[in-house]
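Kindly inspect what follows.
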Amino acid sequence: MATKSSKQEPQNMKNHVYKIIELTGTSTTSIEDAVTTAINRAHKTLKHLSWFTVAETRGNIDKGKVQHWQVTIKVGFTLEN
């Protein structure tokens, strides 16, 4: 016999429609800082940011050392009604 709770959707996922955009953040410090840079900038103009996934990581090398990180992420946010 199935319980009522097994048929319910999690409250935070109920009937949402997501828009996905691609952003590229950069940093001379780290991959994490490049991701944070992209998300912080998107947060200034977009509402309801919900999640991200890393799509690509690149970098610049100079004299055998990493000089610059460039990280492309896909960011999902819920659309307003």
Remarks:
- The first helix runs from residue 31 to 43.
- Strands lie at 18-27, 49-62, 65-78.
